[in-house]
Amino acid sequence: SASTGPPPPVPGRPPLVAAAMFAAVPFIRAAAANSRRGALAGALGARRHLSLHEYQSLALFQDFGVAVPKIAVAHSVTEATEIAKGFPGDEVVIKTQVLAGGRGLGHFKENNFQGGVHIIKKDKAAEFAEKMLGKTLVTKQTGAAGKPCNVVMFAEKFQIKTEKYFAILMDRGSGGPIMIGSKTGGTSIEDIAEKDPSAIVKLPIDIMEGISSAQSLDMAEKMGFSGAQAASAAKSIEGLYKVFIECDCTMVEINPFAELTDGRVIVCDAKVGFDDNAEFRQMAIHDKRDMSQEDPQEVEAKKYDLNYIKLDGSVACMVNGAGLAMSTMDLLALVGGSPANFLDVGGAANKDTICAAFKIIQGDPDVKSIFINIFGGIMRCDVIADGVVAAVKEVGLSKPLIVRLVGTNVEQGKKIIQESGLDVMAISDFTEAAKKAVEMAKLAK
Q: What is the pLDDT of residues 349-382, one digit of tens each?
């Protein structure tokens, strides 16, 4: 159908360009934490795209003609020793490779070694690698659990003259990709925008025509580059746009995009998201996914195409449909509880899928009670009941289970549960079922 243009602005809501920009910038997490819906939206957004390690992103950029520093990775202390010798000068940068920000200020859980990023003498490579590899790095973004460090990256040491910020993401307001830049980089883009909104440069790109040399040079100059450095930055900007389009990215963020004292302009650090929906045509990229950096329960759920996101509450939810799932989470909070997860089994689930879903939530040590809330439309209540009974018989039932079934084949579903002999609380009223789930969770603590 013909496009009617972007929707009119809504009172009290920021313009769509700004809203899209800040929704996609990865540093914004505090706003999402202000509400359960915000937290869920943030988690869903994070789940939508694959994230690569820094060294993987830099290697990909290099394939598209983007200027990056010299890097190499080590998986063992022995490798680290040999790799460090290959860098010029007496010093080298060693960086922990985990999928989280704040690595430089983090600490390793096992030995309390401070900092995941260091400038070191090359002959100290083995010593530092020993303190990092196989250990768990804890940062502000990882939470207390931290993330395992299985790889360290070595990079050449260089002196930065100026730092800029650059990103590409999809913008609803312009209906296509938008480049976002700032003359100031190396710090939070939100802080820059708050102090001086005029410091943010935005340049939409026609997705059908693509980026032109004139546009990339214009963007580089607006970001504060000039002369030969502007031309070098423009070349990398064109390469980054190609990465964004040809690799089905949801976001490419460079911070800092730096001019060095030796005159080079390079990408120093990057965060890149890839659309999971394009996995079928980006297999080489998605094969780089590091499962060790992801929640094991979410990895298991993905195998069965379950929409599962771990949260920090105590009442596990198994629901069909995102709307009902969010309503269930809201109601649990209203009656004094908190959801332990978002789990939408969808309309195409079968007995095996339901069984897998139940095993995942039953195996979560934070879960104190389980609330299954199904409105049978496409998903039939008897299928849910069969799956739950099969799962309980296989793994046992160690936590209170409250089941609410309404809709298609509801009587068959209730009969299956009743005849199973399982210790299940079947409650038809939504509010009463939620209250009981919260009550049981509190009693179990």
A: 677 888 888 888 888 899 999 999 988 777 788 8
* CA separation for the pair 357, 351 (Å, rounded): 10
| Weakest mean pLDDT among 16-30, 123-137, 190-204 | 16-30
Q: What is the pLDDT of residues 434-443, one digit of tens each?
A: 999 999 999 9
pLDDT at residue 41 greater than cutoff 80: no
Sign of CA dihedral 351, 355, 357, 361: positive
Q: Give me 352's structure tokens.
A: 């095996």
For every residue of 239-286, DSSP letters joined together read HHHHHHHHTTEEEEEEEEEEEETTS-EEE--EEEEEEGGGGGG-HHHH
More confident residue, 377 or 124: 124
Which residue matches tokens 């897998």? 356
Sequence-distant (≥ 6) Cβ neighbours of residue 147 within 8 angstroms = 98, 99, 100, 136, 137, 292, 293
- For residue 379, give every residue at least 6 positions away whose Cβ sits within 8 Å of its Cβ, in sequence order, or none: 320, 345, 346, 347, 349, 408
CA–CA dist 19, 12 (Å, integer):
12
Give the C-alpha separation, 72 to 207, whole Å. Answer: 34
User: How far is Cα 178 from Cα 167, in angstroms, rounded to an integer?
Assistant: 8
Distance of alpha carbon 247 from alpha carbon 5, whole angstroms: 27
Residue 346 has pLDDT above 60, yes or no: yes
Q: Which residues contact 184 (CB under 8 A, 6 or more apart)?
A: 163, 164, 165, 192, 199
Q: Which residues are catalytic?
A: 165, 253
Cα–Cα dist 181/233, whole Å? 12
